[in-house]
Amino acid sequence: MLKYEEIATILKERIQKEIYPPDSFLPKQTELVSEFGVSRMTIKKAINILALEGLVYSQRGSGTKVLNHPFVDKNLSYLSEYNGLSNDFAHSESTLTSEAISFNVEFPDQTVQERLMLSDTQPVYNILRLRLVDGDPFVLEHTYMPVDLVPGLSTAHIESSIYNYLKTELNLKIAGAYRTISADKSCLTDQKHLNCSTDDPVLAVQQVIYLKDGRPLEYSTSRSRFDVRSYSYLDIQL
Amino acid sequence: MLKYEEIATILKERIQKEIYPPDSFLPKQTELVSEFGVSRMTIKKAINILALEGLVYSQRGSGTKVLNHPFVDKNLSYLSEYNGLSNDFAHSESTLTSEAISFNVEFPDQTVQERLMLSDTQPVYNILRLRLVDGDPFVLEHTYMPVDLVPGLSTAHIESSIYNYLKTELNLKIAGAYRTISADKSCLTDQKHLNCSTDDPVLAVQQVIYLKDGRPLEYSTSRSRFDVRSYSYLDIQL
DNA sequence: GAGTGGTCTAGACCACTCG
DNA sequence: GAGTGGTCTAGACCACTCG
């Protein structure tokens, strides 16, 4: 483990245990330098991690203040969309199950070609999955993935967790995602699978997930019942 | 301007002009050190900015690759929610206008007290505004702000841009926002002001905006017509 | 003016990738 | 084994805040 990560973890613990209580100041950087026996650049890097998570605010000339936003302990879960939903639910009391509605291989249409940066001769998986929480319909996911990036995908993976397969078997590294969130009227397919009424809206999320080397891994559209899902995120101004 | 910012800007320009084309590699860091006459740490900091924006991907042992995500040039606008909508539209061909529907001062209820970390004796503004684009209803914003943080707010500010007042007159510095996005059925108020039909959904955004010193500045709920607004963001895995 | 954090340097060492 | 980027150091200087 890297020094600055270790120090960041220790500082976070101290904030959580209120050894550094809200609205107090962290020890000055030179003091932390002596305590941890590292250079100031390393201390700065550690503090910077906390700042990016909204835990502290550093100001030239005055010091580094511990903030007390009401959402600090929620930090863990709201980012992890591409660990797959399976992971979000791994430590929860609810159980997530998946039901493959359709699973095909086909040549991509123009939208999919653009989003996944493919030519029309490179086949893609076309997957429609319903995810259920404790047996109740939660989200309908329509996913395209290039076959050459994800060889050997099977219904078994789809009914459990695709992302476990990607990470553990294929060792693919995900860089991030570009997401668009919108509201929409429910269509017949939504109503059928999500078990919602004709005038219920849905929350729609379109995303393209990229690998670290820049190749798009997934283009998907997911639709959730409006009353069971929302998206939260912390947006830090740089 | 700081050295690493200057260098980051130059590198971005070169990527945009395809002096460094997609899928190519940036010059090695030692080469950039000679070119710019700075230390390698400074080059690293500059490249790191590009990496956080998803423009390049650095890998130990191989180099720094220029990525070609289709959304790179959208980088400018999708983050700027707390510059106020007024700013989003400053360089657009459409015009944004605001209409104050109600503007009061009151004692906060319990939700508002929690979100804004206030006691029940600290008054807040309660503002309901309709924002229109080219005269068409766009979003209905319901905003609470502590009076002591924003003295002297008037209808004139509300009908133009609150955030200009906050930034230029009061010199308040915004750190970031915690946002929750969801879909909802439209209520009577939505239908009246957004001019939408009874079965039209709305896109709802709840947010708390924080100042750099950690104090909450605004708690607001905004509701938009489902067919005119969506939220996009780039989510980089760290 | 005293004290803080931010930037920057010039170098060392190391982990990793690739042929 | 050669070459890359990541980490870390020990120090210098500077911009800023605050009394």
How would you portray this structure in words?
2 copies of one chain form a homodimer. The first copy, chain A, has 238 residues and is an alpha+beta fold. Chain A is 28% helix and 33% strand. Chain A contains 8 helices and 9 strands. Chain A has helices at 3-16, 29-36, 40-52, 85-88, 110-116, 155-159, 162-169, 188-194; strands at 56-59, 63-66, 96-106, 124-133, 136-146, 174-185, 201-211, 216-225, 231-236. In chain A, strands 3-4-5-8-7-6 form a 6-stranded antiparallel β-sheet. In chain A, β4 (124-133) and β5 (136-146) form a beta hairpin. Chain A is elongated and about 60 Å long. The model of chain A is unreliable at 72-83 (pLDDT under 50). At the A-B interface, β6, β7 and β9 of A face β6, β7 and β9 of B. Chain A binds a DNA duplex (19 and 19 nucleotides) through residues 2-4, 28-30, 38-42, 44-45, 47, 58-64.
Topology overview:
The structure is a homodimer of 238-residue chains.
Chain A: H1 3-16, H2 29-36, H3 40-52, E1 56-59, E2 63-66, H4 85-88, E3 96-106, H5 110-116, E4 124-133, E5 136-146, H6 155-159, H7 162-169, E6 174-185, H8 188-194, E7 201-211, E8 216-225, E9 231-236
Antiparallel strand pairs in A: 1-2, 3-4, 4-5, 5-8, 6-7, 7-8
Chain A binds a DNA duplex (19 and 19 nucleotides) through residues 2-4, 28-30, 38-42, 44-45, 47, 58-64.
Describe this structure in a few short sentences.
The structure is a homodimer of 238-residue chains. Chain A is built from eight helices and nine strands.
